[in-house]
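[step 3/7] fold_predict: job queued, chain A
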Amino acid sequence: MSQDSPTAVLIDNPVIRMHPADNLVIARVDLPPGVPIDDSGLVLLHAVKAGNKIASRAIAKGEPILKYDTTIGFAITDIAPGEPIGADRIEYREFDRDYAFCKAYQPSAQLPESERANFKGFVRRDGRVATRNYVGLVATVNCSATVVRKIAEWFTPERLADYPNVDGVVAFAHSTGCGMEQTGEPIELLRRTIGGYIKHPNIGAALVVGLGCERNQAAQLLASQGLQESDSLRVLTMQQVGGTRATVEAGIEAVRQMLPICNRATRQRVPASHLKVGLQCGGSDTFSSITANPALGRAVEILTRHGGTAILSETPEIYGVEHTLTRRAATPDVAQKLVDRVQWWKRYSEGRDVQINGKVAPGNAAGGLANIFEKSLGSAMKGGTGPLMEVYKYAEPVTASGLVFMDTPGYDPVSATGQIAGGANLICFTTGRGSMFGAKPAPTIKLATNSPMYASLSEDMDMNCGEILDGTADIEAMGQRIFELMLAIASGEESKSESLGLGDNEFVPWQIGITG
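[step 4/7] structure written:
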């Protein structure tokens, strides 16, 4: 893929060419046979649905299929000019990629501090900045999940009316914490994730609730994360307190004592350099790589010029284009970290029916994506074209500024959970099919790739990047609008997912390893 910022070039309507070197174009809308494809007299041979690929010249059997001048597969048969290129015409197979460590690295141009944008955030005692101010209730194990949910449910808006600076009381329940290895990566990963939420700047106070006999003991959890009980961090153990009802009552009282502490926080103007934005895409379609993803990438480039941080993730969904990131890595060590994580996924997924081995989800296929290479091509665009500054393991604290990468699965709730545990105080989520997602404690901005979906699901979508496809906005302008929306949501403006109450079920730590 070219290191230049992607720009969709319209060949009039009704098709789109992404790069002059491509041997295909994309149908902008549903098209009947006979529609002209370009000015040379080439016409569409068969009807296609919006988002599907059409050969713009003759493609020989075995020849690479090029989109954005990047290989997304190989022709299974000869393909005539004007013929649709369905998934059944594209062979998925491995091919050599030149990682060229750091070859294209160029430092980001940073704006002077006096020229940087700002937003209204909560400044914590350690200097970190929050975009929201929650009391968090954290279960150590599935056995205490109901208790933390019942405590959170007690704190209705009416009961929180006396605490205007508190955004809510939220439960972080999960389905693990026992029946797992007592040492090693699985429990370390779980504790790192839970610890990241307890320490998250958007959590003003936290209550940890355990059962008492679980493998993920509260005391070891806190010790492993360098945490100690205080007036804003309390611990309850159900077997010691006296069971479910008694623990719910004790938890309500503990939160009531912490609410005044949490409420002391007030918003103040802070530089945009304090923003850490997790980048997500779900329910992707062909238009993801034409509208929302490159527009978000442009917003990321703006954010990093202002000193902020963007966290690209979903390792299985950058597979096939990872070389475009290693070329922009700040150091060979950073590049090698990314390659190591990709190779881990290849070994872990060997022989499994998962998308890193070629096949994408049914919704992606229906949206015109042939395989993981084509999906990854769009997914990686969310990070823009700037340098890759660091690579992190799942839920590791993100300390570098600029574009960074975190190793996560491709499943959105698990991936976003890792980003938030790492410190993301905002999530930007692009979708073409219409993913219904929200997160707590970090608010989520939903970006639609096309206007028909936006019109149908506008209650869930914050911005319509389909305007790029419609010709009423370009990527540059849309990127600026996304950046400005980041600042507004970070300052307290309610996102669509927040207004719908989403986020109570999206704490999903990555579970790896055996159970038993």
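[step 5/7] annotate
The first helix runs from residue 145 to 154.
The two ends are 45 Å apart (CA to CA).
exit 0
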